[in-house]
């Protein structure tokens, strides 16, 4: 049994985390053994350090916290049924973190693992998790944009380079012709 003081501590801790997290994913840990949870936590810690964490929460405390930080009860009430753990990311690319969770769930063949969550304040359902995880990360998007911007520029440079090269060949041919006419005509 958790004491009232301990509940207040947990509530205050969640009040610090939930508004700052760019990703909140609610998962069902029913049927998972301690070793599996430990392995998932170890992967999260090795990749994100203190910027991400998976923690088991009481549904009532999570509900109170989500309401206090401004989330709509209609958005999260389905997430808080049954045993619930929350995965949160404080810094870094949230989609990359979501990919870690999805790959772990696939690897361990976890069914009904995801309940839903919030990505940068926007709600998503359990069905949308795999779609979100398949999106490119911010770094990948930046690379795509840079590639798309550089492509036409490189094409223009190569085209202009080809035109200049042809001009040099023509001028060189004219110079050679004039040299041959000036030496041949005397």
Compute the gyration radius: what is it? Answer: 30 Å
Q: What is the mean pLDDT?
A: 90
Count of extended strands:
5
Helical amount: 55-70%
Q: Measure the end-to-end span.
A: 114 Å
Largest sheet: 5 strands, antiparallel
Mass-distribution shape: rod-shaped
Strand content of the residues, in percent?
15-25%
Please tally the helical runs, counting DSSP H or I stretches of 4 or more residues: 7
> Helices and strands, in N-to-C order?
HEHEHHEHEEHH
Structural class: alpha+beta
Low-pLDDT runs: none
What does this structure look like?
- This protein has 186 residues and is of the alpha+beta class.
- It contains seven helices and five strands.
- The chain has a five-stranded antiparallel sheet with strand order 2-3-1-4-5.
- It starts with a helix and ends with a helix.
Give a brief outline of the structure.
With 186 residues, this protein is α+β, with helices and mostly antiparallel strands. The protein is built from seven helices and five strands; from the N terminus they run αβαβααβαββαα. 18% of the residues are buried.
């Amino acid at each position: 049994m958790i004491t009232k003081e301990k509940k207040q501590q947990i509530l205050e801790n969640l009040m610090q985390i939930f508004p700052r997290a760019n990703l909140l994913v609610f998962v069902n840990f029913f049927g998972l053994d301690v070793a599996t949870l430990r392995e998932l936590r170890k992967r999260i810690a090795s990749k994100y350090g203190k910027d991400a964490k998976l923690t088991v929460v009481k549904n009532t405390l999570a509900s109170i916290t989500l309401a206090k930080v401004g989330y709509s009860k209609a958005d999260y009430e389905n997430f808080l049924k049954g045993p619930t753990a929350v995965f949160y990311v404080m810094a870094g690319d949230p989609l990359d973190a979501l990919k870690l969770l999805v790959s772990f769930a696939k690897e361990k063949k976890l069914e009904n693992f995801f309940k839903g969550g919030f990505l940068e304040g926007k709600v998503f359902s359990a069905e949308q998790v795999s779609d979100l995880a398949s999106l490119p990360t911010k770094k990948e998007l930046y690379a795509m944009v840079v590639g798309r911007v550089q492509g036409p520029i490189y094409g223009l440079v190569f085209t202009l380079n080809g035109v200049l090269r042809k001009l040099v060949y023509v001028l060189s041919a004219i110079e050679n012709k004039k040299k041959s006419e000036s030496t041949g005509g005397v």
